[in-house]
Amino acid sequence: MPRVLRRRGGFGAWARRLAGGRAEQPAEGHDPYGGTAVKAPAPYAVRRQPETWPNPAALLLMALGPGPRLWERGPGHPEALTVRLGTVDRPAPDGSGLLPAVPVTADLREVGALGLAGPRARLAGLARAVLAQLAAAHSPDTLEIVLLSADRARPVAERTDEWSWLGWLPHVRPHHGQDCRLLLAYDHEQAAARTDELLRRLEDHRNTASAAGPRTAGPAGEEGCTGPYTVVVVDGDPGGTSVRAAVTRLAQEGPRAGIHVVCLAETAPASAASPVPDTYEAACAVSPVFRECGTVALLSGDVATALRLMRVAAPPPAGGPRAKAACRLPAGPPLPTPVTPGTLAAVDAVSFAWAERFARALAPLRPDGSAGNRPARVPVPLPPSARLLDELGLARATPASLQARWADAADDTTALGGRAWAVLGAGPRGPVCVDLVADGPHLLIEGPAGSGRTELLRSVVASLAAAERPDRLAVVLVEGRDGIGADGGPGDGLRVCTDVPHVTTHLAANDPVRMREFAQSLSAELKRRAELLGRSDFAEWHTRHTASGRVVARRTAASPGVPGPRRAGTGGAAGAAAAGAGAADLDSPPSSTLRLRPGAARRQAEVAPPLPRLVVVVDDLDALVSPALGAPGRPSAGSVIRALEAVAREGGRLGVHLVAATAPGGRTAQSEPVRRATLRIALDAPASGPDEPAPGRGRLTWPDGRVTAFQGGRVTGRIPRTATQRPTVIPLDWQRMGDPPARRSVRELGNGPTDLALLASALERAAREVSAARIPSLL
Ligand SMILES: Nc1ncnc2c1ncn2[C@@H]1O[C@H](COP(=O)(O)OP(=O)(O)OP(=O)(O)O)[C@@H](O)[C@H]1O
């Protein structure tokens, strides 16, 4: 037992340790290793409560449990990114003797980048101890770890063997869309890919920060970053000139964006034979990034079990002390040097076996925090394709999950007239969702042929339906072009959406009589709404009528054996409204050409509410504005356009939204639906090639001018094989884990139903469960 423990063991000593303060510095002026004796402010805390920084034994227990302290430090935690590097015995503040093994720590947020140097075996042990602490204290949501071990001075097999334990940590998985299986780099290409990803993040952070305006300065004069964090382990020389420059930039600017470099350099231990300045220069020669570290720890002593932790600063020139930053200027001759003597401690180091056991214990664990508690997602490159159901969070679209969403919408007092949320696809920070009520009322999709306009309209219909029940939101489909096939396949325009229970009407521009009838019905519906609302707008009317409890028609549950709720009143929309929700609110119904959907009228029991939201979805608007010569719908296209123009003008107040897709430019540019769209999407021309994204790539411009790029969610694809429960077994090759995953096209399950068909069937069952009344058709 160490002498100090024998002398000061027991509870008394433990209590005194808890009351500890800062580390004592060795006497100024005497430096057995020959460093420049500059009096430094105590750079690293030897702080209170040593248990804040658990020792390796406690760490392993945290992982194996897993113990309650696992991942205890969230973003912005006062001890976030603070690691213990060793321990020191020091006098108790009350002079009662020595406090044994008081932790010596470094806070990466304070030091920016941390350098560790020493003989390989001990250096690896220290690095393992540091990374294990970080992984135990921070969840993978809060911290990701990136390894760059591409130094060709050592054989790759040696490097992969040494770091193979790290690959088990959940923190090295690419959670932000990085193009690899694990955030590891063992060769130049992988190192370049990892640093490019991090530099993009840095850039994005800078853009976000400059958009947000000046911020308060955090520790070390940096803008405080409250996570998520990235620790980049740079083992030796990171590689060629470009990667070296990138890592240097990350070490300098990264801390502002929560990116911290931990640089490892293999050197002889600092000793009388290799004084501190020589060891430091040797480390800088091994890895140029070492010079960028704000604090360095040099292993020292004959067997390298001691550690010298030193702040790095410019040597004091004749004129007086200089700021550390000054010596980074290319013109400034003085190079940074560690401020000796620093703190001398006994090093923390763990074995490979310890680290592998620890990492494998963490491997199967995932944070269970609700999405709301998680740190903001960092922006990621857009995926080459996206599946709408995944973006909707409905990978398993069940009636129960849809009912839960509808119930949530019903409780939403800010969406009294019904939610109109449309998820477009995957964006840089998760799903991109527009709210036609708050950001609309109208949405325009422009794009050249084949850019995915029709598919995006289908996704809009599907996601609107997932967000609100069919008696509170109805959808009307209009195909501007007459080119609809008869097989009902995915290339079949908007017809594939007609199984969604919210869809009341489907019009194709191929029958002038029906088109004219539709135009009249739509105009009459606008008129009916205007009369019903009087001077109030849609939201006011719903506020009033929700307060008086008269809006949603309640109905008795369907008796067993009676076919579900595909039914409505027989008197047209206005008649149904009058019967359902208080005829006193209605003036005499306007002359109406509304007719029920064929086969929909079965029973009088359920009555549609009078004023659901209505979304008119129009594909190929340009073909309606300028119909081709000889197009069958040409004679009546004008009447449909006039009705759509009325929707564009007056729909916002009446709870009627327009979602239209068109080719850009031409005569449509002057039409009301285009001019009045507050939300605008521009889709890119389709491109072919293995690295090109699928159609549906575009940019959404919000009403305030912000632009969000997204990859449109596909909804007519078939369930991917990866969505099934079958495990995949692949050989583990650490060296290749940093490569982009093999690009295999997503194999879809044979001839199964499309995602849209699956969703439509779940929507239909959910509608039946909640006894949703059917909104009458416009035709
Ligand atoms: N988000 C998407 N993800 C994957 N594939 C898509 C996506 N959107 C569209 N596609 C595919 O691209 C092709 C063209 O799509 P779509 O018909 O929607 O384009 P469009 O702009 O309406 O063009 P057109 O009017 O000429 O048909 C289709 O084969 C469709 O399956």
Automatic annotation (TrEMBL):
Keywords: ATP-binding, Nucleotide-binding
InterPro entries registered for this protein in UniProt: AAA+_ATPase, FtsK/SpoIIIE/SftA, FtsK_dom, P-loop_NTPase
Top-level taxon of the source organism: Bacteria
Domain FtsK, chain residue ranges per copy: 429-694
Keyword Nucleotide-binding: yes
Sequence ranges of Low complexity compositional bias: 575-584
Residue sites binding ATP per the record: G447, P448, A449, G450, S451, G452, R453, T454
Pfam families associated with the record: FtsK_SpoIIIE (PF01580)
Positions of the UniProt region annotated as Disordered: 552-604
Protein name according to UniProt: FtsK domain-containing protein
Organism per entry: Streptomyces thermogriseus
